């Protein structure tokens, strides 16, 4: 199949008013370059980041927990000498040890300040463009966490603030303390629960949406046909959609996407990304990859034009309630 080739991207704006941040229409999730989806490949990651910038994918997303810590260092090396081209996003809150152990969620003001300083050092930059709370800490009032984040803006260490996997109520409370530019959450043809309360709240407040895993962790590309091999986190029970009967049912839905993609002259992944892009100019997905060829395929999705009827047909082909399995085995830190 001949699929749309990448062309330099246009831009979109996250947030509004004094909290508006202009970024590339598609971003790049960098997590998998260092962990979770098979063995890390540093050189491949660097090559992918360089190619992304050349294509106009300038919105780069990382977090201190990825690696742990090594992904920020990788991104920092990749953007050295090209910092002015980049809108750099990173996150704090999911604490990990140097050995990779998970130490819980921390939204305390003291940790906010310490985590930011550590990220700045690893990234090799003076300012983070978009700083997210990775997960909401239920033991710390969101007002206290965002208050500390706002101090980072005043200090010039951070330009704009974001939240990840927050509930509509939490977003409102946070936005009342300091304008929130973007909320990052999972959103794809396979994950649409945010359409009920979170997305309407974002639009009421003028907050942008940054969907991660817009390709359903690779399922919607059509490349996944069985549970991934050991060494890939998707092989674990933490990702129920890749297991047994759930995977079989979900692959039937992928076949429907593949059929419609053929009619559009694009790949299934490009169609799935085009569907996310069609949800609004305030939506900027960040598909992740560590391979140049997948990056180029993803960027090609921006050239896939969908009518309202096309979007509705694709939504109907993959009904919300037809997807099998929760997106995480443990959903306790989601939508807080």
TrEMBL record:
Domain of life, source organism? Bacteria
Matches recorded under PROSITE patterns = PROKAR_LIPOPROTEIN
Major enzyme class: oxidoreductase
**Enzyme Commission no:** 1.1.1.-
Q: Which UniProt keywords apply?
A: Oxidoreductase
Does the keyword Membrane belong to this entry? no
For this entry, the protein name equals Aldo/keto reductase
